[in-house]
Amino acid sequence: MIDLGISKLALIGVVALVVIGPERLPKVARMAGTLFGRAQRYINEVKQEVSREIELEELRKMHKDVQEAAGSFEQDLKQEFSQVESEMNSVFGNPLFNTPTPDQHAVKAKDFRKKKLARSSAIPVWYKKQSGCRMHVLSGAARVAKYRPASLSRKVTRSFF
After folding, report:
1. Nearest-angstrom CA–CA distance, 88 and 98
2. Cα–Cα distance between 117 and 119 in angstroms, integer?
3. By the 8 A CB rule, do 131 and 118 touch?
4. How far is Cα 86 from Cα 145, in angstroms, rounded to an integer?
5. How confident is the model at residue 125 (pLDDT cuts 50, 70, 90)?
6. 73 and 107 both lie in a single domain
7. What is the pLDDT of residue 6?
8. What are the DSSP E strand ranges found in the chain?
9. What sign does the dihedral 71-72-76-82 (CA atoms) show?
10. Distance of alpha carbon 128 from its chain centroid, rounded?
11. 55: helix, coil or strand?
12. pLDDT tens across 19-52, in order?
């Protein structure tokens, strides 16, 4: 800004006193002070706005740099994982690491549900017979006794006493 020393201010004051006069000098001085204060506030606001814009631009640039770094890191990571997966598939073979297709997954889920229903006790007997699920397992001796012809299965009941 303008370099104003005490001697220059005194000279301006004397000239103002002569030109304006002693009656109107205090009013003019107050008005000049308020105008000078407004100018300073306006200049400070402009400086703050410019500094905010500069900071915002720097933040945008940093955000863009971070996004680019994250994207490149993600690509590198995906590439490394794909290399490791291909190496594992080549070492152990594809069937070990293949995930089932949605159709295979649905078939497995359906079989699991069917087996679970067959095991549970809340299923009606007619459904178990229809699905071919055994309800009771017979031992060999019980099966022979059940399916033996009537002529051979004369039971003689003997008393223990």
Report:
1. 11
2. 5
3. yes
4. 62
5. low
6. no
7. 84
8. none
9. positive
10. 46
11. helix
12. 888 888 889 889 988 999 999 999 999 999 999 9
Q: Summarize the chain as % helix, strand, coil (round to 5).
A: 75, 0, 25
Q: Which two tokens stand for residue 89?
A: 């598939």
- On whether residue 155 sits in a domain, the answer given is no
Structure tokens at 151: 């002529």
Q: What is the pLDDT of residue 14?
A: 86
Q: Which residues contact 88 (CB under 8 A, 6 or more apart)?
A: 97
Cβ–Cβ < 8 Å for 17, 25: yes
The residue among 97, 62, 65 whose CA lies nearest residue 81 is 97
Token representation of residue 142: 């019980």
Give yes or no: residues 85 and 104 share one domain.
Answer: no
Q: Is residue 113 part of a domain?
A: yes
Q: Which residue in the block uniquely carries the two structure tokens 């306006």?
A: 42
Token pair listed for 7:
């001697």
Measure the N-to-C terminal CA separation of the chain; round to a whole number of Å. Answer: 133
Q: At what angle do helices 6-20 and 25-92 cross, to 10 degrees?
A: 130
Say if residue 133 is in the same domain as residue 85: no
pTM of the model: 0.39
